[in-house]
Amino acid sequence: MDEARFGQKGRVCHRWFTRGQRPPGPCDQRYTWTHLFAAVRPASGDSFALVLPQVSTVATNTFLARFAATLAADEHAVLVLDRAGWHTAKTLDIPRNVTLIWLPPYSPELNPVERVWLYLRERHLSHRLLDTYDAVVGALCRAWNALTPERIRSLTSYPSLEQVKV
Q1: How far is it, in rounded angstroms, from Cα 101 to Cα 81?
Q2: What is the pTM assigned to this prediction?
């Protein structure tokens, strides 16, 4: 589980183009943002996501409550996440059917969902001008909905995860 900020100031990434020429790439200087909270299951490619206007303990509580509501009555989820302040707040309301496991400090590369953020930015959200907040949300939702379970599995299945026994 993790969250990422997406917005108008898009990411410029590498593109194939004619040798010796620079490809045109629009770059927006405006600052309208939204945040995508997501949880993925690397083994199956299952996922759950919410687009929320900010990151905070309240937003994390909303995400956890809605995520927990999607689980079956006899199902328990373990979420691996970083130690962001809103993840460790004393007012965080963790549902009964969810357990949180913290990553070591300064180790975002251990969180498989980080590769999903990179994929969304490079493949769906780079070199685009988004005029309004609603356009940012719409583009982000379309990008997330375009992800297939196979793509999520290929992005998040680290070889080290196969060694973990549940």
Answers
A1: 6
A2: 0.79
> Are the beta carbons of 121 and 13 closer than 8 angstroms?
yes
Residue 71 lies in a domain: yes
- Beta bridge mates, 148: none
d(CA 133, CA 7): 8
β strands within 8-127, DSSP E: 33-41, 46-52, 77-81, 98-102
Q: Taking the CA of residue 101 as centre, how many other CA atoms within 13 Å lie in the half-sphere pointing to its CB?
A: 6
Q: How many Å apart are CA 146 and CA 160, to the nearest integer?
A: 27
pLDDT, one tens digit per residue, over 34-62 is: 999 999 998 889 999 999 999 999 999 99
Taking Cα atoms as reference points, which of 50, 46, 44, 45 lies closest to residue 2?
50
Assigned domain for 63 exists: yes
Range of the domain at 46: 1-7+29-134
What residues contact residue 129 under an 8 Å CB cut-off, 6+ apart? 8, 10, 26, 28
The domain total for the chain is 1
